[in-house]
Amino acid sequence: MKKLLFSLGLVLAMSTSFAQTNTEELTTEPTVLAEKYNKSAKENLAKGDVTKASQDLAKLSKYENGKVWQVKNKDSKKDEFYYSQADLDKATASGNYAKAKEVALQPKYGFLLQSEVSNLANKELDAANKAMDAKQFAEAGNKLINIYNLSNVLGDKNDIYYYQAAINYNYANDYDKSLAIIKELAAKGFTGKSANQTKDYNRDMYVLALNGLYNAKKYDAIIEEALVKYPKDADINNLSAAIFQVSGNNDKLLTLYKEAIKIEPNNSVNYYNLGTFYIDDSSKLEEAKGMFKKAIELNPKYSEAYNNLVMAILRPDKEIVEAMNNNLGKSKKEIETFNANEAKRKALFTEAVPYLEKMYELDSSNKQIIRNLIQAYKTLGNDQKENFYRDAEKKLVK
After folding, report:
1. What are 68's strand-pairing partners?
2. 18, 35, 103, 170: which could join 178 in a potential S-S bond, CB 3.0 to 4.6 Å?
3. What backbone phi and psi angles, to 5 degrees, belong to 218?
4. How many helices (H) and strands (E) does the chain have?
């Protein structure tokens, strides 16, 4: 078989992990299953159905290579067959079983098809590369899975092909199919490393999964898995936060922001994020302000933190203005209510002005900042400052 090559520029497959969920596999001798899938593979090869043939061949390889654990179920009186120690342990831990017997599987059919499988794998490789060049990513993903199945039959158990299939499905916007592959690879501890390939793709695999979840606006537990493995990775943390936000998982988002502060207490962005999370909750405004102030303390040039701090300070302004407008009459009560709210409003702007001034210092050409300062000083009755910023606005227009 010619060496399988891929353009890793597409990066930002089956010895399929066959979970034992069907009765046929559980209670049928592997030699019988091997014969069944050998026959089916030949039929599908004759028809030219590469996808079904590759699936048959992958199963044939499973039932002819490696080990099987044979154990009698004392309740059903039947022998059962498990193809991994983990599956055996899971079954016998909760069932009534005799002692298991480990059996080495013997190849019978697969090696007879080696030449045909090798030729077929190379044809699928050519088709996969053509599909990728044509940006037919779903088709490329299908071909890559076929290649993975076929290469596994030939003894080349390299998960990079399966990973490439996940990448192509992601490009095709088939995020569910991509994620299913990634979760299977993650369970196997995929790295993509081989004798000829030293790069570790494990982290990239999780980023790919999170990108897909964000685009699909869906939550999946693989997010927590990624965060545990890469707690300080900025991309994984940012993507996770974005997914929690778009999928409505606010509790998880809050936990993520708090954990980020524990992990990196000197990172101003972490405090900014938590403050932004709190800002729309009127009961958390003081906490929001505290977070923004901490972010500014750590990064005195953090313009977004100044902006959101001003927003948090002025959040009650709308309600205060409404109260003032509802008390424009001349009765004693209305006058007192109006004056009390006017004083509250001036207090808000007095608190906000130093931060608005700092924003102007950082970006003196920002028209919106200048207009906000004009409004602030107008509210406070400071004509000198108001006129200063009106002049600054006129200079920008020129």
Report:
1. 103
2. 170
3. -125, 150
4. 19, 3
Look over the chain and give the mean of its residue pLDDT values, rounded to a whole number: 88
Show the tokens assigned to 267.
């990172």
Q: Is residue 299 part of a domain?
A: yes
Q: Which of 263, 375, 365 is nearest to 310 (CA)?
A: 375
Q: Note whether residue 320 is domain-resident.
A: yes
Q: Six-digit token pair at 32?
A: 């019988």
Among candidates 225, 230, 221, 227, which has minimal Cα distance to 256? 227
Burial 26-52 (b: 16+ CB within 10 A, else e): bebebeebbbbbbebbbebbeeeebee
Q: Is residue 305 situated within a structural domain?
A: yes
Is residue 380 packed enough to be buried (19+ CB in 10 Å), middle (13-18) or exposed (0-12)? middle
Please list, in sequence order, all residues whose beta carbon lies within 8 angstroms of the beta carbon of residue 344, skipping any fewer than 6 positions away: 316, 320
pLDDT in tens, 259-317: 889 988 999 999 999 999 999 898 999 999 999 999 999 999 999 999 999 999 999 99
What is the DSSP-derived secondary structure letter of residue 109? S
Distances in Å between the Cα of 169 and the Cα atoms of 151, 165, 218, 290, 330 are 20, 6, 16, 44, 70
Instruction: Tell me how far apart the alpha carbons of residues 102 and 349 are, in angstroms, rounded to a whole number.
Output: 78
What's 157's DSSP letter?
-
**375, amino acid identity:** Q
pTM of the model: 0.66
Report the distance separating Cα 207 and Cα 130, nearest Å.
26
Q: What is the CATH number of the domain that holds 307?
A: 1.25.40.10
**What is the span of the domain harbouring residue 369?**
265-396
Q: How many domains does the chain have?
A: 1
Within a domain: residue 337? yes
Contacts for 261-265: CB closer than 8 Å, 24+ residues apart:
263/231, 263/232, 264/232
User: Over the stretch 383-395, which tens digit does the pLDDT of each residue have?
Assistant: 999 999 999 999 8
Q: Report which residue type is found at 70.
A: Q
| Structure token digits, residue 198 | 């030293």
